[in-house]
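Morning, I've got a small favour to ask if you have a moment. I owe you a coffee for this, so here goes:

…
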Amino acid sequence: MSSPPEPAFSHDLTLKSLFAERDMVRDLIRDHASSLFPELQGFEPTELAASSTVTTDPVEPPHQQGRDRDLVWTLARAAAREDRVLLHLEFQSRPDAAMTLRMVDYAHGLFQRHPEREVYGLVVNTGSRPFGSWWCPVQAVAGTRGYGFQPGPVLDVHDFPLPVFPDARYPLSADSLMTGFITLARIQLEMRRNNRAAVDQILPVLRTWIVPLVLRSTETLRRAFGAWFRTAFGELLGDDPELRAELSKIVYIEDAEAVMYTISQALEDRFKQGEAQGEARATRHLLLQFVAEAWGDAEAERFARQLEDTEPDRMPSLRDLMADQQAGRPPRLHHNGRTASAE
């Protein structure tokens, strides 16, 4: 028997556009930390430490394109902001026997950049089969140099109960963006299995677990959910006016077909907010975050020196930096309305 066809979009890039949103990671920690990593209860996301640049086009294939870089959030304890850790999110659509080596290698890279912060890794599986396990190194006895291994955290959509999907272990919160994500991901894989009952669940899921919560969130999260829905279930929209009307509450279908959603645009929104508030420090931070994503840490250090004492009108926008990246040149400052040559 032949394997089912691959979806017409990338699980990895689509999910990165969702989990680049603070509200998604907030609900992930609030509602699932107790089962995944109890020591992170009470933490909340503060900023992206690393992310991919993801471009989503719901109409023209390829539906997602992006520079591959894993998603890492800085988390801080609500009562003690100086107590910070890193959360590395790895998205999978199939089991991977090399996952332990990949997670440990990435954690080691993060340690080299942030030696003062502990690293927590989480595998998020939305594939057709349960992921299984990966092994996380742990200190065997506190204060010694010995270490062992224990199963690493996995958030697997197969583990959660839905009306037509039995054999699950964990309950879902009614007031959580994660519930909408998990249910849609599960419906999506059940549709690939030709489970027709799954299609009937889409409209109730939108009305109950996605639209009310997303409407209270940010515009960028609405666009991310809309783009995911448009690429994953777009063929249903023409046949179901109710479905189209419900989705239109969070994103205009026509706009979703015309706009290119990127994580960089979300960062630029925050960049503009910083400018409006006169927060030059926040502006520099976002610029350097993007430079590190696009060119690497060495170029970010060089550009940081250029930004020292730079006037606000000489700072480039994120779109300018994206243009520099696409042209194959280093990031540049602005000068009299035009980008200045790299110093």
